[in-house]
Write a structure and sequence with these properties.
The chain is of the alpha+beta class. It is built from 9 helices and 10 strands. It is globular and about 55 Å long. It starts with a helix and ends in a 6-residue tail after the last strand.
């Protein structure tokens, strides 16, 4: 175990190795497998990092509810995004009284959450993009700068090292065999203009449609018209290449991410660190 974080940085630099991942643009006709889609596994790992921490998770869920109200109003009967955000909060065991308090507070507030992306370089070669939703950006950035300075990281331009993609995860409601599911979802992907489609689960008929980030809302609408139940959508960042860290460097970086995720306003963190299973 390293004696200091500075020692961790030296260790980190000595073991960084890069590997290329080719971007896939064609329509896929096979189910998802871990080896061929490690970038999705990386994203799942990053996003799930602190979901076990109740307070951090509830802050994120409340922000999603607030964003849904901001976009479509406070009535879940006519605001599908709000209904979905409330359902997600209930699934994650957020008390109904807490949800009602968030709705009431959001209705009374005039402050608007805005989306920001901050680019970070940590430990010399770790590239990071932080997605924020906040109404106090200047203050939040100052808080982050203090944390970065103490953890050998700083704001810098790294966005060019990532590919931006949108994806929509949806469930096909009809009863259909697995082989037919592959054929059907491929036809639907072509019909709606999706760049790629992946079968996440043949049992639950969960599919992921990949698209241009600016086309997410259109793809969601088209899928709903075709009879899909949209479960989740996201504008995500995928590294063009990844690096490997040794155990000491991984521990140091995980501590940095934990501190960043604990800041109210930080929604997601994407990086170029390869996840090893």
């Amino acid at each position: 175990m390293f004696k200091s974080l500075r020692f961790a940085v030296v260790q980190c630099s000595s073991v960084l190795r890069q590997s290329r991942h080719r971007a896939v643009r064609e329509i896929h006709l096979s189910p998802l497998n871990g080896a061929g889609h490690s970038k999705w596994q990386n994203i799942r790992h990053i996003k799930a990092l602190n979901d076990g921490r109740r307070s951090v998770l509830f802050i994120k869920l409340s922000r999603q509810i607030r964003l849904a109200i901001q976009a479509g109003g406070a009535n879940p009967a006519v605001n599908n995004a709000l209904r979905a955000a409330i359902d997600e909060a209930l699934k994650k065991n957020m008390p109904n009284s807490t949800i009602q308090g968030i709705l009431k507070k959001a209705n009374q507030s005039t402050a608007q959450l805005k989306k920001f992306c901050l680019e970070i370089k940590a430990f010399e070669q770790v590239s990071v993009i932080c997605v924020l939703y906040t109404d106090r950006f200047t203050q939040l950035k100052m808080e982050m700068a203090t944390i970065l300075r103490k953890n050998f990281a700083a704001f810098t331009d790294v966005k060019h090292m990532f590919d931006e993609q949108g994806y929509v995860e949806a469930v096909w409601k009809a009863d259909i065999p697995g082989d037919d599911l592959l054929s059907m979802c491929t036809e639907h992907a072509i019909e709606i203009g999706s760049e790629d489609v992946e079968v996440m689960s043949e049992e639950t008929k969960l599919l992921r449609f990949i698209c241009d980030p600016n086309e997410i809302d259109r793809v969601k609408t088209q899928l709903e018209k075709l009879g899909y139940s949209v479960e989740h959508s996201e504008h995500a960042f995928f590294p063009k290449s990844t690096i490997k860290l040794n155990p000491d460097a991984i521990e140091a970086y995980e501590k940095l991410k934990e501190k960043l995720k604990a800041i109210d306003g930080v929604e997601d963190i994407y990086d170029n660190v390869e996840v090893v299973y």
